[in-house]
Every structure is written in structure tokens, then in C-alpha cells.
Amino acid sequence: MLQLKALADKYPNFIITERLGYKEEALAEQAYFMPMLNRRKPFSIFLLFYVAVKSFFVVLKEKPTHIIANGAFITVPAMLIGKLLGKKIVFFETTARVSSPSLTGKLAYKFFADLFIVQYDSMLNVYPKAQVGSVI
To answer: Are 94 and 102 in contact (CB under 8 A)?
Structure first.
């Protein structure tokens, strides 16, 4: 997603992300941090609800026309809220996926994405309607 920074600098933008240890704030005009979701942990459904509520208020406040999502499960609530509010959703399947889909990618492809981008030609076997965007 860092490779999209030059494009993002031309438009008002914000990010919803997990704290990963680098300068996330430098990626966008505004950064909103969410707790890391691990769907395999027993109480993750409560954390997912918290992320959904927080994402809802961020999307209402920022009023984006497009939501660009990549990989992490925390993007699912923002994509859902964006879709319900009529926003365009662009999803990039993670570079870690060369031949098999991620859970977030499967959800985005089936329910949310107006534009679904994979980073390897081999992923067209998994997502036939996707577009190849090369490695980002």
C-alpha cells in the first residue's frame, strides 16, 4: 500500500489500520488505529463488533467516495459500512496470496469489491473477474 502513497497525496485521504510498528501516520493525512483482530481467538467477535462501530464513525466522519482495502480482517467492517453507504470499494488481495485466497479476499470478492485486484496472474484461477495489478 506504500506504493499508492504518491496517488493518495493528490486526494484527501485517511487510513484505518493496525499499529504495525512503522510510521503509519506518514501514509495518510489522518490515521485511525484499530486493535489487531485474530478471528481464531475466542472473544474476537466482541473485538470485531468494536472495530465495526469505530469504523462506522470514521466512515461517517471522513465521508470517503472510495474505500481501498488490503488484506487484513479489520477491513471487513469498513467495506461493509462503505457498501451500505454506497461507496466504491477497491480491494487488493495481499501479496502473500499466490495461489489460494484469503478469508478477507473471499468476502471482498463475493460481497463488497467493485474492483478486485490481484497481484499475480495465478490468482485469476481463484478470482476470475479480478484484474491483475502487479505486485504492490
So the answer is: yes
Per the prediction, the chain carries an average pLDDT of: 87
Whether the CB-CB separation of 116 and 129 falls below 8 Å is answered with yes
Q: Are 104 and 116 in contact (CB under 8 A)?
A: no
Report the C-alpha gap between 33 and 61 in whole angstroms: 15
Cβ–Cβ < 8 Å for 135, 96: no
Q: Cα separation of 118 and 136, whole Å? A: 9
Return the amino acid letter for 57: F
pLDDT digits (tens, 9 = 90+) for 70-81: 877 889 999 999
Supply the pLDDT for residue 39. 76
Residues in contact with 67: Cβ distance below 8 Å, sequence separation at least 6, in sequence order: 59, 78, 79, 82, 87, 88, 89, 90
